[in-house]
Amino acid sequence: MVIIKQSLLERFSKEHAETRKSLATWRQITENAFWENRQDVLRSFPNAKMIKNNRARFEIVHNKYRLIAEIYYGQNRVDIRFIGTHSEYEKIDPSTI
User: Fold this and answer.
1) How many domains are contained in the chain?
2) The three-state (H, E, C) secondary structure of the chain, written as one string
3) Which domain holds residue 37?
4) pLDDT (tens digit, 9 = 90+) per residue, 62-88?
C-alpha cells in the first residue's frame, strides 16, 4: 500500500519518541500489504478496529496512541487521517476526520 501523508507520522514520531518503533512496524507492514477488503486489514493487524467510511483505527504503543487511516481498497492507498493520544482520539469523530 502507498501511505499518503507520511509526514504526519514522521512529525509525530519526532514529538513522541516512544512511538518510533511502533510506527516503523506499522509502516513496514502497511507498505508491504495489498488490502482489498476489511478482512485483509485485520489479517495484518488483528487488533485494528474497522470504522465506517473505509477507515481503520490502529493501536500504537499498546493503545496509548491511535492512528486512523482511510483505506482505498483496490487502489493500493492508505491515507493517514489522524494520529494522537488516546485522549485526543476521544475528542474526534474517526469516521469523518
Assistant:
1) 1
2) CEEECHHHHHHHHHHCHHHHHHHHHHHHHHHCCCCCCHHHHHHHCCCCEEECCCEEEEEECCCCEEEEEEEECCCCEEEEEEEEEHHHHCCCCCCCC
3) 2-89
4) 989 999 999 999 899 999 999 999 899
